[in-house]
Amino acid sequence: MESRVQAIAFALMASVAWLGxxxxxxxxxxxxxxxxxxxxxxxxxxxxxxxxxxxVAAAQAAALRPRVVRVTGYAGATGxxxxxxxxSEARANAVAEALVAEGVQRERLQVTARGESESxxxxxxxxxxxxxxxxx
Length: 136
What we know:
By secondary structure, this protein is α+β, with helices and mostly antiparallel strands. Helix content is 44%, strand content 19%.
């Protein structure tokens, strides 16, 4: 039990240190402005890992203060557009709502959905994602 508590404490300290470093990174660092949130097949629910990714993106948005936070949902190229388009919209909206709950101003959000029309290269897991971009 003690080792598990130590592991969790270490992970939290590493996350805090990483976020502190992110807040000091220049706003033109492209890696600081793009975040990916992944979803299980057919799902729009945020997993704990997805919530953590949203939390990091929101913290960086607070530090970098972008003009626009673009949220783009993807669903995949293997399903019917009547299913994938609404799925990608629901995923993008779920992430947008989570960002607002984390303190990102709704007015800064630009939410779009690609469905199968612009699936990501390579398909698979990458198509079950929402991309968050912090735009200056």
